[in-house]
Design brief:
alpha+beta, Helix Hairpins, D-amino Acid Aminotransferase, Chain A, domain 1, OB fold (Dihydrolipoamide Acetyltransferase, E2P), 6 domains, 7-stranded antiparallel beta sheet, 5-stranded mixed beta sheet, 22 strands, 19% strand, globular
């Protein structure tokens, strides 16, 4: 009898999985909802009577009962890079030229064109055919685990189909994709929320991303999330092509978007992109462009990647959708740097999946150039289908009594006199104690990607600044001394305050590069912060560096180096950093190598195509062994590593008498270390 029950349980699971696949992936249901529900109820009953037979991959285990109190870090097997964007056919031809120049001469290049889904990126790790973890993109290297929430999505298989015909073992791999909502499902969800008096979601993408970070899987299960998978990643397998990988994903039971095309050359790529843009309005989901990938995985590895994006793939963004609406008023907002930005307050209009009621006008010169006035009928579009902007005025509908807009003389928040630096288009509030600037700096410091202080969002920061609790980001770490005051605030309470203070303490574990980014130095984004942290290794070294020293760091230009020097020349900033040090924040990185090697303190420049490494991989090896990598050849360069088709950098190295290494010599040095 026990064997019979176990067999029936497995039969039911297979039937449910098969019907989930037919319904949620193929959109071809083969049984009625009633019949499906009966299968699920029978399985639930048998598992309740035999709890020892319950397995994590059972369909009954999709919706967990426990709340997710923290989203643990997950390191991706291979970094999840973002794509560089192109906006014209000329830029696509340029991408093709760079791809062919980056490969050994004579190689043919095929491309795969896929829809660019406007969703939230996710990576699913399967071990021995069972879903182990699901993670967000995060910073590209480390994401956050959202397994409990992703398991609720019926188009995500908990257990993969067994395929004897597959030549790959796939014991441990990542399948990557985009989680999204169909437009009709999103509109239905918003209608239900409106009827319940709840706040409406802005667009399908934001609602999908926000849902994935909810703590209760039962709530997530009620949201109409879906997924398309587009990439196979494994350190154990040698895959051949992207086109074949899409087929493998489909055979394994994943939901793969059918609108992909294999192209023999860039002309066929352009045709595929045009065809996809024509179909855009007929699709059930939002797309904002096409993704073009080199088909050969071997060629992808040769091309490698730059800091943020692969050289073997690019996004081709479609023309933005437009709408007409009325500009009711122009208001001015103050950012964390003091820049005062004009904002168009609009008559709400639906555009590209969301309702738009505000749009940036960038600066006063933009208002003058387009002659934008209050009361105008305007043409609105989403830049890159994300940020709404006013692109033109319908002059024929302009009211007779309309007048040109004038910039404000004083800060709209603190009343300080505004100034406009020479050679800049923005007006600035010079008062660094302006509440709007303080709030902006604090929001940036606490944000995910910086100090990641969960719970310290815009609303709480506004409240704490108004109550005079926060003036600088160093004050955040003194909030523990105000616990009684915080608990006394309406709608906070003991538990919320305890969670917030715990999150503040946890943020002290953030690495130096995150802390440096959190400081909000003008022009220093997350990528630049990482490069500066890796190069200087501590805040003290960076503070003592000259503008020239900073400019020598790979991909750090004069705007960044000048801004960094200005920041550390300000006595107020130095005092804040001292307080942050006293609070125990990380202001140093561990050295890449503690053992002297051939590479220690030597500067390398890479040029040409390497066959056994991407440039990034070679650079990482040099840096990990104590060396430095520069983007340009100078008298201070110790070695130039030259691959195939090396160009002007090799010529300059020879003219300066600098040592040149080929790839084989480089490999020998790596062995010696």
């Amino acid at each position: 009898m026990p064997d019979k029950i176990e067999k029936r349980i497995e039969e039911l699971r297979e039937k449910i999985r098969e019907n989930d696949y037919k319904y949620y992936v193929l959109s071809e249901p083969s049984i009625s909802d009633f019949e499906y529900d009966m299968l699920v109820k029978e399985l639930e009953k048998l598992e309740a009577e035999n709890p020892h037979l319950i397995t994590p991959d059972s369909p009954t285990q999709r919706v967990g009962k426990d709340l997710t109190k923290e989203f643990k870090p997950v390191t991706h097997k291979v970094p999840m890079l973002s794509l560089a964007n192109t906006y014209s056919e000329e830029e696509l031809f340029d991408f093709d030229r760079k791809v062919r120049n980056g490969l050994p001469s004579g190689e043919k290049v095929e491309y795969v064109v896929e829809p660019k889904i406007d969703g939230a990126s996710v990576s699913l790790n399967y071990v021995n055919g069972i879903l182990k973890t699901a993670a967000t993109r995060g910073d590209g290297t480390v994401g956050e685990e959202i397994t409990a929430n992703v398991k609720t999505i019926k188009s995500v298989p908990l257990k993969l189909k067994k395929l004897k015909s597959l030549k790959y073992k796939l014991n441990d791999f990542e399948a990557r994709g985009e989680i999204f909502m169909k437009v009709k499902d999103f509109l239905k969800l918003n209608k239900e929320r409106e009827e319940l008096g709840e706040k409406l979601f802005a667009n399908p993408r934001n609602s999908s991303a926000g849902t994935l970070k909810l703590q209760d899987p039962k709530v997530v299960a009620k949201r109409p999330l879906n997924i398309f998978l587009y990439m196979l990643v494994s350190n154990e397998e040698e895959f051949e092509t992207q086109f074949n990988n899409l087929k493998i994903l489909k055979e394994l039971g994943f939901n793969v978007n059918k609108e992909y095309t294999l192209c023999k050359n860039i002309d066929e790529v352009l045709d595929a992109c045009r065809h996809l843009e024509e179909k855009r309005e007929t699709l059930e989901y939002e797309i904002d462009g096409a993704v073009i990938k080199v088909n050969s995985i071997r060629q992808q590895k040769i091309l490698g990647s730059i800091a943020k994006s692969p050289r073997w793939a690019v996004a081709f963004k479609f023309k933005a959708k437009q709408a007409f609406t009325t500009l009711n008023k122009i208001t001015w907002q103050v950012g964390r740097t003091g820049a005062v930005t004009p904002v168009a307050e609009l008559e709400p209009v639906f555009l590209s999946g969301s309702t738009i009621s505000r749009a940036t006008l960038h600066n006063f010169d933009e208002i003058t150039r387009k002659d934008i006035r209050e009361g105008d009928k305007v043409v609105l579009e989403k830049g890159g289908d994300v940020i709404p902007k006013v692109v033109a005025v319908v002059l024929g509908d302009r009211k007779k009594n309309s007048k040109p807009v004038k910039p404000p003389d004083n800060c709209p928040v603190c009343g300080s006199k505004l100034y406009k630096p020479e050679n800049e288009v923005a007006y600035y509030c010079d008062n660094t104690e302006c509440p709007a600037q303080i709030k902006g700096r604090l929001e940036h410091f606490a944000a995910r990607g910086a100090m990641d202080i969960e719970g310290l969002g815009e609303a709480l920061i506004d409240l704490f600044v108004e109550k005079d609790f926060l003036h600088t980001y160093a004050d955040i770490y003194d909030l523990k001394n105000r616990k009684d005051d915080l608990v006394a605030i309406d709608r906070l309470g003991e538990k919320s305050v305890t969670n917030l203070l715990t999150s503040i303490e946890e943020s002290k574990k953030q690495p130096f590069e995150k802390v440096l980014f959190a400081l909000g130095i003008r022009y220093v984004g997350a990528g630049a912060a990482r490069k500066l942290a890796d190069h200087f290794l501590s805040i003290d070294n960076l503070m003592q560096a000259s503008e020239e020293d900073i400019s020598k760091v790979h991909e750090i230009g004069p705007s960044i180096s000048n801004s960094v020097r200005d920041f550390f020349s300000n006595e107020k900033n130095l005092k804040i950093i001292k307080r942050l040090k006293d609070h125990g924040l990380n202001f140093s990185s561990r050295k890449k190598s503690t053992v002297n090697s051939f590479f220690t303190n030597k500067t390398f420049v890479l040029t040409g195509t390497l066959l056994k490494f991407s440039r990034d991989e070679a650079s990482e090896k040099i840096i990990s062994l104590g060396g430095k990598v520069s983007s340009s050849v100078s008298k201070k360069t110790d070695y130039v590593l030259a691959g195939e088709n090396a160009g002007s950098k090799l010529d300059k190295a020879k003219s300066l008498g600098i040592n040149v290494l080929n790839e084989e010599e480089f490999l020998e040095l790596l062995k010696e270390k």
